[in-house]
Amino acid sequence: MSSQLSTLLSEQRRFPPTPEFAEGAHATQALYDEAVRDRLAFWAEQARTLTWIHPWQSVLEWTAPHARWFSGGQLNVAANCVDRHLSGARRNKAAIIWEGEPGDRRVYTYWELGQEVGRCASALKGLGVQKGDRVAIYLPMIPEAAIAMLACARIGAVHSVVFGGFSAEALRDRINDAECTVLITADGGYRRGSVLPLKRFADEALTDCPSIRHVVVVRRRPGGEGDEAFATMREGRDHWWHRLLEQAAPTCPAEPMDAEDMLFILYTSGTTGKPKGIVHTTGGYLTHVAATTKYVFDLKDEDVFWCTADIGWVTGHSYVVYGPLANGATVMMYEGAPDWPERDRFWKICARYGVTVLYTAPTAIRAFMKWGPEHPARHDLSQLRLLGSVGEPINPEAWIWYREHIGGNRCPIVDTWWQTETGGIMITPLPGVVTTKPGSATIPFPGISAKLVDVHGTVLEKGGGFLVLTEPWPGMLRTIYGDDARYRETYWSRFPGRYFAGDGAKVDDDGYWWILGRVDDVLNVAGHRIGTMEVESALVDHPAVAEAAVVGKAHDLKGQAIAAFVTLKDGHAATAEMRDDLKEHVAKKIGAIARPDDIFFSADLPKTRSGKIMRRLLRDIAEGRALGDTTTLADPGVVARLREMYEAEES
Ligand code: PRX
User: Fold this and answer.
1) What's 542-650's CATH class?
2) 328: phi > 0 → left, psi -120 to 50 → alpha, else beta; which?
3) Which residues lie with the beta carbon below 6 Å from any ligand 1 atom?
């Protein structure tokens, strides 16, 4: 049994909801009961909280593996996230409170947000963007990122947000896969005191993006317009955001969208070298994220909700932008690093703006733990009333630390399991209703059907196995952009008729879920999903590399770190410079998040007789464990040689 699993199994602490929290909470036991009685009626009731232009005819049409939710219905996502809040008291309420890393601040009321979204939508239309066109967004965490997404939604364009930490090549591949016609970027973004030159990366990407007709550039740096070092503007193609919006009308009609029209594409890593364009649509997605935001985060009008995820990940889409704004909430947004200029930056922000609900990742919590409780202790965190966790399994120790040092032993914690593909939260406690256990995501959200199965697909009541989803849900991905065959194959073929999430899990005697992590060749590095094949392709792209195998290695802070085993071509020496060069090469091909922690040079890699690399053995080696079964190896001597080398390098 893995040490992780045995720690989880011995976890006995229980945290029942306090009566005070339960009394004021949105969620009640009745919500679960209702969903059990009639799942579709439950989701229809959630959908009715949105504003529809035309009512739907059927809640769900399911021809496995393709779902249509709220078919026949029409709505506009931007109208739901902005316009409908403009007629009442929320008109002057802060929609987005933003702080830049250097300390600059901006607040947008719902009214102001509406004006900016309107202008951006008009400007995009002016550039010829039409319903269904794809727009790439490559921005730092600045309000313009949310404004650009909502502007696309307003005119029916499909956005494809690319995380600002991805490289020029990664951006290029994503733009080309979706044939985006417009790119929205910035001259730069601040990270740990320096400027990430996004426009320069974008220009590098655009040397080979034939579909791009226009580039809109946000001026993030003060006085940056004339600064050639950060943004060289190409006449006719490139436009400054502020100039374009200045001339654009603040009103722009919201396009009536069919519930099943595409809202966005978001690329995520899988088990092949090519990222998948996950397709999300309009009515079901918004229903799912609006309902989960309301009940999981117990969002009230007076809350300040801070989801710390970058807009480039699904968490940023669903719980920085669409879910909270559909609920008319106040969203906190921060541009930079948690340890800049000091390790108390997050707590300073919480205190300054009176953040009430904080949603962050275990990797961040583990870093806070390491930095010490004196940093949060210096600030008044008494406004916090609820804490959330997402992105990777949270170890009970980090959970307890979070509860004590951030939540003052009073805030409930919601550990939420979901994925880019699921669109919204799937397994989570509802605060005020469900007793929590440190390290467990607890039970499925009402209306969600999760089951545990063994390798043959047989449903298990409890124990260890694979997590599958047995019924369609409103926020589910509809396909992989341009590759429906891959959609069927990736998610629906392993256990036919059921969605396979790729995660291993355990269900305990109380029916609580303990997510153990990916069982496929997908790594979770500091909450970021990276495919081993992507890193391997980047490595073999280097002229000196003959072969590469990449595995995840347990890491205290990041959860997993990347370890690569590399065979060099004849004539290339395994030097320290070569190691640095290869790390740099991967960072350049994919982005700094994929830079390997360790590179081990080896004359051969352990393979089965059929030529398959035995990653399990490599993981054992990288983590310094006793070796598993080596009887299927073509050349058992390879492992011994590798291990010797690894140990020599480690010492
Ligand atoms: O392995 C699970 C892990 O993150 C994967 C999904 O990654 P991504 O699509 O990038 O979305 C991350 C944010 C939703 C899952 O397959 N994961 C996510 N949340 C949790 C988790 N693992 C354990 N506990 C969680 N709460």
Assistant:
1) alpha beta
2) left
3) 268, 314-315, 390-393, 415-420, 441, 501-503, 515, 517-518, 524, 529
